[in-house]
Every structure is written in C-alpha cells, then in structure tokens.
Specification:
Length: about 325
C-alpha cells in the first residue's frame, strides 16, 4: 500500500511537471493573445458604450452609439448595402473564375506550370502597387482598357468615375486575386478519382454532366472553404475603395470599412467606430454560421453528404 501511494504521488508530480512545461511553452502565445487580442477586444466593447474621441477620457453613454447607428446614420445602411453587394458578387465571381482556371491548369499541357505561376502572381504582389496599376488601367482617357475597346469601335465607360460602373470595376479587379482559391481547387481536382470520369464516359455522360454530377460534389469541401474564407475577407473590404475611389463617386463604393475608418480617423469618434466594428463582427459571425449550417445540405464528404454517416447501433 505504501508503494502504491508513492507511485501515485510520483505520477501526480509527473503530470504537474508536464502541465507546467506545456503552459511554459505556450506562454508567449498566451501573453500575445491576452495583450494584443483579448484585451483590445474587450476594451473596444467598453468603448462602444462610450463617447470617446481618442484623446479625452471615455464618457459612458450606454447604447447611444447603437441607437444612433440604426436610427440616425444613413451612411451606415448605405455602406452596409454596398458591402453586401461587393461581397456577394466578388465571392461568386472569384469562385467561378478560380475553378475555371484550376480546371485549365489541371490538364496536362505544355507550359501548365507557367500558367499556374501567372495566375497566382497577382495574389502575392503588394496590394497598393497593384491597386495603382488597376487605377491606371481604368483611367478614362489614358487607360489601356478603354484603348482596347476603342480598337473595336466601342466607347469605354468612365470606370471609376461613373456610379454605375465604379463598384463593378472594383469587383472585377478583386476577382483577379484568385490565385489562392485556384490552388485549393487544383489540389481538390487532382484528388478526384479518374475512374468516376471513365465510368461516366462509358455511360455516355456529357462533359457538363460530368462536372455537375462528379466534380462539383467531390470538391464541395473546397468550395465550402473558399466560400467561407472569401466571404469573411470580402465583408471587411477596405483597401480597394480606399486607394482607388475613397467611397465615390456619389457613395457608390462607400463600403462599411470606409465608414468605420472615417468615423475613427477623420471624425475622431472612436466610441462610435468601436460600435460599428462590433456590429460588423456580429454580421460576419451570423453569415458565416448560416453558411456552415447550410453546408450540411450541399457539402459532400467521404462518409456521405453533409458529413460522415453515423454508425448504427447494433
């Protein structure tokens, strides 16, 4: 009995030492998380309940900022609608374009690796630099796009200066940064068993039917991943309109990120900006959870549609 008690005490000491080593090794991450993420997050929630200019001490005002947001800020609703417009169109266009490019470079042909590099290159180029290049491409008088259109007798639009064309121009430009999703789709396509396509051809299936019956279901986890990540990123769009249009013309590209930025760094209303940030966080969370819940109906995993099949009890 004494030997058992000694062994038990030694085991407890060993477990305590392992736990201490574990927390010691992750302590840098824990310190960074609490100081740089959790701490600012909690303080921003407190700030959202105050009137705070960033210089003077915060004055607690309760839910005043949120009431102003929903009932007294027209630009809040305008920026939110513009953000949904941008996110919905950009994510769908990016998914379609990246999947088409992935199917193109997945085939064995000369120069396939070169094309992969070319298609992925815009994703690694510095953002501001590429935005300035696109602003030049869209230039009404000197831009190459309108020049190419003039060669076939078409008068190009005022891309970034026309309220009807400004947002579609940003969406088209953003969709060209599809290198990351393309690589994910490429990896998924290469995992699809070729035997399925061979069986479909024997049955006389067309290429289009093969795509929707075989390819899409088997790569649906990749579609789901790219869709969720793309949606989260697109809902936080800021750099493109900030660099290229600054919300114009006539607020056509005035997205939520710009409204938040202007509130904080132009009007120095950090309390209201914090409230805006929390509403954006809640919206992204709700939309993401909605997509995750709906994935049970259309995402196919190896164990069956919508997840692995549950084992039946004997």
């Amino acid at each position: 009995m004494h030997t058992g008690m000694v062994a038990s005490a030694a085991e407890r000491r060993r477990r305590a030492r392992n736990a201490l080593n574990f927390y010691l090794f992750i302590s840098p991450w824990l310190v960074g998380f609490f100081l740089l993420t959790a701490g600012p997050l909690m303080y921003s929630f407190y700030a959202s309940l105050t009137r705070w200019t960033g210089i003077s001490p915060p004055q607690f005002t309760g839910l005043t900022n949120f009431r102003q947001m929903f009932f007294g800020d027209d630009r809040f609703w305008r920026s939110l609608l513009n953000t949904f417009y941008f996110a919905g169109a950009e994510v769908v266009l990016t998914l379609v374009l990246s999947l088409v490019l992935a199917r193109f470079v997945n085939r064995r042909r000369p120069g396939a690796y070169v094309f992969r590099t070319i298609f992925y290159l815009p994703s690694v180029v510095a953002g501001v630099a590429i935005f300035m290049v696109w602003a030049w491409l869209y230039d009404t008088n000197l831009g190459i796009l309108n020049y190419l259109l003039s060669l076939i007798g078409v008068r190009g639009p005022r891309w970034l200066l026309d309220p009807r064309w400004a947002m579609p121009s940003l969406i088209l430009m953003s969709a060209t940064f599809c290198g990351g999703p393309m690589l994910i789709f490429l990896a998924a396509l290469q995992e699809v068993p070729q035997e399925y396509y061979e069986a479909a051809r024997i049955d006389g299936a067309s290429v289009l039917r093969e795509f929707f019956i075989i390819t899409v279901p088997l790569i649906s986890p990749s579609i789901f991943y790219n869709f969720v990540v793309g949606l989260i990123v697109a809902m936080q769009v800021f750099s493109e309109p900030f660099i290229m249009t600054f919300g114009g013309p006539m607020l056509a590209t005035y997205v939520y990120g710009l409204h938040l930025y202007n509130t904080a760094f132009r009007y120095f209303d950090f309390g209201y900006a914090s409230a805006l940030a929390w509403i954006l966080f809640i919206i992204i969370l709700v939309v993401s959870l909605g997509v995750v819940v709906s994935s049970r109906m259309w995402v196919y995993y190896e164990g069956g549609a919508g997840g692995e099949k549950k084992r039946r009890k004997p």
